[in-house]
Amino acid sequence: xxxxxxxxxxxxxxxxxxxxxxxxxxxxxxxxxxxxxxxxxxxxxxxxxxxxxxxxxxxxxxxxxxxxxxxxxxxxxxxxxxxxxxxxxxxxxxxxxxxxxxxxxxxxxxxxxxxxxxxxxxxxxxxxxxxxxxxxxxxxxxxxxxxxxxxxxxxxxxxxxxxxxxxxxxxxxxxxxxxxxxxxxxxxxxxxxxxxxxxxxxxxxxxxxxxxxxxxxxxxxxxxxxxxxxxxxxxxxxxxxxxxxxxxxxxxxxxxxxxxxxxxxxxxxxxxxxxxxxxxxxxxxxxxxxxxxxxxxxxxxxxx
Length: 304
Known about the structure:
DNA polymerase, domain 1, hpI Integrase, Chain A, three-stranded antiparallel sheet, about 60% helix
């Protein structure tokens, strides 16, 4: 007999060790399963996971719907539960899967919002080029856009991952998967300027406090960046540039991919640079590019 709490812990451990999933993905699954656990506690089914039945699952999904969750969030919650019960069946902890006959709601992938190349230039021009902070922040923005990094990849970038002479970064993405990403002349120039002029100041503060000094980008206090810290800095620059307030690091990554495809890059190369395991994830950007082509056709073709 296995308690529900023990079963959830074992499943999350298996995701972390056996499937090597990213920590953010595991945290999302954990939240979804803990929410289901609360319902099972009310129904007095914590002591034996084998007592959970399809009625409990349906009741939980109904409550999620009552809370106003959209189809995408519902599908993610169901994915977490489906994986959990499938794991328990394989482990012979339950005789049958209570979700076997349930279908996930259909989700419609929204086209990612992207910045125009002019808006990117507008954003990059904001950091003060005469201050250590401005030189660092310009380099961060150049690398974010120039390499299409996720925010976690940017803030965890280490000196040993850079090969500026050959123009490449070694990036560790989701599940610590390694990929080689080229960076252009603008990003290299901004990085070299930061390493030469501004980083020594932040490095000195980090060393004085005994902080990690191998991280490329250090805060004003000599610490590695957090995701929230970089988001806050980006929002300040977005506001100063007079751009839409909903711009995020991920939208800059979207822009990187879209601008490559608009410039003629092939889908497979963009997939490799983004670190997508499945090319279907990258294909959404082709729709953005097609939309842009349709706009150009309407504006400039005599019968557009």
